[in-house]
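dumping this here so i dont lose it
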């Protein structure tokens, strides 16, 4: 995995990251589209708890290879084939991206895969959970 370097300095900046010795630039539009696909808007405030969760998943998306993302979506499509709780929009997007790989947007594929793998494909679950474990939070069960 390459080193991820966040260079966001305001609403007009892009992000750059290095992966396998190649620098990839991610437009702010792609990041805003990621937030929008899941019903939120990106405001650049990383102190906002919602943004903190989405930033975690965004970074995971940047770390995924395209093939890993395709594998995750393939598994998700098979697993959720008859799942009426999965949003129609996400189900349709997964199917489209798997059947039209040449037309698929790489960051859309990777961000959908990261959302499924590292958080949840269900909006109801995402609304009450974080995509990471807070080891400082008190617990009553073994982690």
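and the seq i came up w/
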């Amino acid at each position: 995995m390459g080193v991820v370097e966040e260079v966001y300095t305001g609403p007009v900046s892009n992000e750059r990251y290095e992966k396998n010795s190649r620098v990839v630039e991610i437009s702010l539009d792609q990041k805003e589209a990621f937030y929008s696909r899941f019903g939120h808007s990106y405001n650049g405030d990383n102190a906002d708890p919602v943004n903190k969760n989405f930033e975690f998943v965004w970074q995971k998306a940047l770390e995924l290879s395209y093939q890993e993302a395709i594998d995750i979506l393939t598994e998700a499509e098979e697993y959720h084939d008859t799942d009426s709780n999965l949003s129609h929009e996400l189900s349709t997007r997964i199917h489209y991206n798997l059947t039209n790989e040449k037309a698929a947007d790489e960051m859309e594929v990777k961000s959908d895969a990261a959302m499924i793998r590292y958080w949840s494909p269900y909006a109801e679950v995402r609304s009450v959970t974080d995509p990471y474990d807070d080891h400082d939070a008190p617990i009553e069960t073994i982690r």
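The two ends are 27 Å apart (CA to CA).
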